[in-house]
Amino acid sequence: MFVVRWDCFSFALVFAVSFILSRAEVCNGGRTSSFVRNDQLSNDMPLDSDVFQVPPGYNAPQQVHITQGDHLGKGVIISWITQDEPGSSLVLYRAENSELKSSAEGIVLTYKYFNYTSGYIHHCTIRDLESDTKYYYEVGIGNTSRQFWFITPPEVGPDVAYTFGLVGDLGQTHDSNRTLTHYELNPAKGQTLLFVGDLSYADAYPFHDNSRWDTWGRFIERNAAYQPWIWTAGNHEIDFLPDIGEVIPFKPYVHRYHVPYKASGSTSPFWYSIKRASAYIIVMSSYSAYGKYTPQYKWLEKEFPKVNRTETPWLIVLMHCPFYSSYVHHYMEGESMRVMYEPWFVEYMVDVVFAGHVHAYERSERISNIAYNVVNGLCTPIRDPSAPVYITIGDGGNLEGLVTEMTEPQPSYSAYREASFGHGILDIKNRTHAHFSWHRNQDGYAVEADSLLLHNRYWTVSEESAVAGM
Ligand SMILES: *[C@@H]1O[C@H](CO)[C@@H](O)[C@H](O)[C@H]1NC(C)=O
Ligand SMILES: *[C@@H]1O[C@H](CO)[C@@H](O)[C@H](O)[C@H]1NC(C)=O
Ligand SMILES: *[C@@H]1O[C@H](CO)[C@@H](O)[C@H](O)[C@H]1NC(C)=O
Ligand SMILES: *[C@@H]1O[C@H](CO)[C@@H](O)[C@H](O)[C@H]1NC(C)=O
Ligand SMILES: *[C@@H]1O[C@H](CO)[C@@H](O)[C@H](O)[C@H]1NC(C)=O
Ligand SMILES: [Fe+2]
């Protein structure tokens, strides 16, 4: 099955010449970090941990989290859960510099999963907010109310500086808590978190004990109630368990984590897009149909041409399963989707693709592998200035632990790889430059274990170089 192989080592001699030629274009080999990490499995934090505490008071809102609520960043979806009774789905909010309180009415829903019944899950979208403004908001009106705040992004525009955090495969272990703490205390100060899938890992428990979705919601509240987390669905969100009658994929996830998919013309919460500051972010679903003629394909086909790089220079794609990963675990799982969509990534000059799934960190060179046509043998990734950088950031720290086994030798498409837990920061400076850094949990908060000054694919096409690494 050489159709989908990257390294042509198993190829017949007839391919050897083209192999050597294309190989030569990717000559500076990547780095495998020799950092010695603690790779012991970490258990989930116990149920009585501080991070899982239920807020006091009758029917107090818990698991408060926010995400973008429209296409432009002037809306916010506020979600929370009440346990005792439905209570109110009202949100009261006001801008920091104003006494005038506005209100918005949301919806409340519940779901059952085997013998688990959820609390009352509230979702309320507030719209038409001022840009670049701090808002206070209050939920739980009528019973125990709680107040939080967020800051809206600046108006969409080409040179708007903005800082995104990147976390994937977080789970709820002590390592997860370290990752979140390092993200919070990183002096780079992420303003919005791009989450690349695999949230709670509740499916690790018998009958996918959904109370572990609740503990996860309480764990992330300390950050997700104050800044939007942009959601991507991973395989641990599927929760497909026909043995106990649970045959609707993604049931807990779609009830708990709403996203503004309709605002981008999508028909499904699993793929959608948002604009935020100078970025256009496309979220894809590795676990929904993506072949030709499928709803996801048809949406993406229309979506890429809509991106106006004069308005939003930075084109970012999020997905769960990486196209390029050189770890042994999950090796080539993203291959069929890569074959489908990589030509568009190159055609539309995507700047960077973030994925999770593989519990480690890896950054690729700008490479593409789209020349192959079944007979020409051109199946090796080559350097391609129009191609994205692929970053695997599945190192949030869940109970499955790190994957440490790597394919050897390190393939030339791989620029840097390390099996340590951590998070990423994408610090967009202006239309031409963005600084990406990766931060491992063992280091001080400001330390960049790997970093790259990204040059925008539309506005510049000059070479990039890694600026740190240790
Ligand atoms: C999680 O991290 C926070 C912030 O560092 C800390 O206050 C808390 O005690 C930690 N909880 C656990 C269970 O490790
Ligand atoms: C659900 O069923 C399992 C298996 O019978 C049991 O261990 C668990 O306690 C039940 N949970 C609830 C909420 O009833
Ligand atoms: C809780 O709030 C709801 C909605 O405001 C109200 O109808 C209900 O009476 C309150 N319950 C208690 C016990 O105060
Ligand atoms: C792209 O965006 C710029 C800046 O907002 C605008 O002037 C231009 O008309 C847009 N182009 C298209 C084709 O919509
Ligand atoms: C964009 O940001 C980069 C990196 O901070 C800086 O070197 C460059 O001068 C900036 N360009 C403009 C036009 O401000
Ligand atoms: Fe995964």
TrEMBL record:
CDD domains: MPP_PAPs. It is an enzyme of class 3 (hydrolase). It catalyses: a phosphate monoester + H2O = an alcohol + phosphate. Its EC number is 3.1.3.2. Residues 60-155 form the Fibronectin type-III domain. It comes from the Eukaryota. Its cofactor is Zn(2+); Fe cation. This is Purple acid phosphatase. It comes from Durio zibethinus. The lineage of its organism: Eukaryota, Viridiplantae, Streptophyta, Embryophyta, Tracheophyta.
